[in-house]
Design goal:
- With 54 residues, the protein is an all-alpha fold.
- It is 70% helix and 0% strand.
- The protein is built from three helices and no strands.
- It is flat.
Amino acid sequence: MAKQSADQVSDWNGQSGERWLANQARLDALVSVFGLATIEAAAPATGGRVLDIG
């Protein structure tokens, strides 16, 4: 497990992280529809609390 974690850290600190950062606005736009649909479906009440996991 430690090896996998180290590999992920290395990957995100390298080319994968650079590519993600370069495309962040485009990626955020692509996935925003899912976040908005989730909020609409959950219909949280004013003053309520929401836990975002991940």
